[in-house]
Amino acid sequence: MNKYLTSAIGRFRLIAFLEGISLILLVFVGMPLKYMADNPLWVEVIGPIHGGLFLLFIYFTLRTAMDQEWKFFKTTWLVLLSSFIPFGTFYVDHKILKPIHE
Q1: Considering the entire predicted model, what is its pTM?
Q2: Burial of 102 by CB count in 10 Å (0-12 exposed, 13-18 middle, 19+ buried)?
Q3: Angle at 50 between CA 39 and CA 3, to 5 degrees
Q4: Which of 35, 43, 63, 80 has the fewest CB atoms within 10 Å, counting from its CB?
């Protein structure tokens, strides 16, 4: 079975990756098309998907923070903040989640 699906941290890494991709698509593809080309289709499709992935990301962040006993302002807050910054979840995956998963 895939290493990302067999553990909670692996599932968190997968959700973080998907959430990061959805944010990039929304910000760099959907929003420009909506406002520059008057084509809201991408935002209408990607927006709800991103919203669902964002909620899953928040859930997995809080769950992992409790399991790993993260300090709130040192680690948990950084991970939560990463979901608002394009490419932020990829940084957090590389610096925080991947070492835990290995």
Answers
A1: 0.90
A2: exposed
A3: 135
A4: 35
- What is the DSSP annotation of 39-91? -THHHHHHHHHHHHHHHHHHHHHHHHHHHHT--IIIIIHHHHHHTTSTTHHHH
pLDDT per residue, tens digit, the chain (102 aa), is 576 678 889 999 999 999 999 999 999 999 999 999 999 999 999 999 999 999 999 999 999 999 999 999 889 999 999 999 999 999 999 999 999 887
CA–CA dist 15, 13 (Å, integer): 6
CA distance 36 to 48: 21
d(CA 53, CA 29): 18
- Within its chain, how far is the Cα of 94 from the centroid? 13
Residues 6+ apart with CB under 8 A from 13: 4, 93, 97, 98, 101
Residue appearing with tokens 């080309």:
37
DSSP H/E element including 22 = helix 8-25
